[in-house]
Amino acid sequence: MSERFINKILIVDDEQTVRDLMQAYLARRGYDVTTAVDGIFGLERFEKDKPDLVFTDIVMPRMNGLEMLAKIRDQHPLVFVVVMTGFSDENTAIKSAQLGVVDYLVKPFAPQRVDGILDRMERLAWLRRESKGVIIEDLPMSLDRVDMVLENDLLAANRMVERIMRLMGIRDDDFKLGLLEILVNAIEHGNLEIGYERKSGLPDIHQYMEFVKTRSSQADFAARRVRVSIRRTGDRVECDVVDEGPGFDWRATLENASGIDELLHHGRGLLLAQVMFDSLKFNDRGNHVFMSKTLCAPPAGA
C-alpha cells in the first residue's frame, strides 16, 4: 500500500443514513472516521480528533455547515473541507468556495465520485507536505510588478505563489488559492494536456506525479512554459497567466455543464478562481487568463 497523507476524516450530517453509509465506505478504505449530527457537535469532534479532512452537510439544525466551517477556518485555516448537499445550487457553491471548501458533493453521490475527491485530497496533501521546508528568502520588499516563467512542475507552482506573495507583500489567502488553481490548471490541462479522465485513472499520488514528470519530459511538452505577470497598485492586483498548450473552449465548459456538481468536478478550478478574484477572463483560445482583485486585509493578529 502506498503512503497515505489523509488519515482522519470527520463526517457531519444530520441524516443518519448518510453518516452510516459514508463512515462504512471510508472505513473500508482504511480511514479513521468519526461522525457528528450537526455543526455544534461537529466543532466538538473536530477539536477532539483534529481530522485531516471534513465532509459536511449544509442544512442542519442548531448550526449549519457553513457556520461550522467559518469557525473551523478561524482556528485551522489549512484543513481540507468537502461540502455535501442535496441542493445543486450555485450560490451555495460560491459561498462554500469563499470559505475555502476544496470540493463539493451533490447528493445522492456515487462511490466513484467520493473516490475522485479522496484522490484529489491526497494530491493536495502531498503537494502541501512536499512544499514544507522550502526556503523562501525573507526579502523586505513590496514590489509593484513581478514577472516569472514556470516549468511544468506542480511543486514549483506552489513555491512560485509563495514567492510572489512574499515579494509583493500580499497576505490575501483568496489570492493565493485562486492563483495556485490557475497555475496548476495551466500546467496540467494547458501545457501537458491532461484530461479529467486521464487524471482520474491515476488515483495513487506517486503514480500521478511520476506520470506528470514523464509527460513533462516528452518532446511534445518539454519546451512548454507558463508565463506569469503580476502587477500591484495599492491594494489592487492584476494577473496574467499564459500557457503554451492548445487552449480549450472555456465557454462550452461553463455552458454545457449539466449542473453545478459536474462543473465543480470538470471545471472546479475555473469556478473557484472566479470566486477568489473580482474579475477573470480568458482570451478566445483559452490559454491566457486575465485576473484582477482588490486585496483583503489579513486577519487581526496575523
CATH class of the largest domain: Alpha Beta
CATH architecture heading of the largest domain? 2-Layer Sandwich
Which range best describes the helical content: under 10%, 10-25%, 25-40%, 40-55%, 55-70% or over 70%?
40-55%
Number of domains: 2
CATH topology of the largest domain: Heat Shock Protein 90
Range of strand content: 15-25%
Features:
302 residues, Rossmann fold, 5-stranded parallel beta sheet, 10 strands, globular
Structure description:
With about 300 residues, the chain is an alpha/beta fold. It folds into two domains: about 10-130, Response regulator (Rossmann fold), CATH 3.40.50.2300; about 145-295, Heat Shock Protein 90 (2-Layer Sandwich), CATH 3.30.565.10. It is about 45% helix and about 20% strand. It is built from twelve helices and ten strands. It has helices spanning about 15-30, 40-50, 65-75, 90-100, 110-130, 155-170, 175-190, 195-200, 205-215, 250-255, 260-265, 270-275; strands spanning about 10, 30-35, 55, 80-85, 105, 145-150, 225-235, 235-240, 280, 290-295. A five-stranded parallel beta sheet has the order 2-1-3-4-5, with helices on both faces. Helix 3 (about 65-75) links the parallel strand 3 (about 55) and strand 4 (about 80-85). Helix 5 crosses helix 6, helix 6 packs antiparallel against helix 7 and helix 11 (about 260-265) packs across helix 12 (about 270-275). About 35% of the residues are buried.
